[in-house]
Amino acid sequence: MTPATTRAESHYFSPSPPDLSALSLRLFEASLENHTLEFATSAAVFNRSGLDQGSRILLEHLLIPSGAQVCDLGCGWGAIGCFLAARDQTAFISMCDINARAVALARFNATRNQLKNTTAWCGDGLSAVRDESFECIVCNPPVRAGNRVLARLFSDAQRCLVSDGALWIVLRTAQGAKSWQQRLKTQFGNCELVVIDSGYRVFKCVK
Question: Which domains does the chain have, with CATH numbers?
Answer without folding.
Answer: 7-15+23-206 (3.40.50.150)
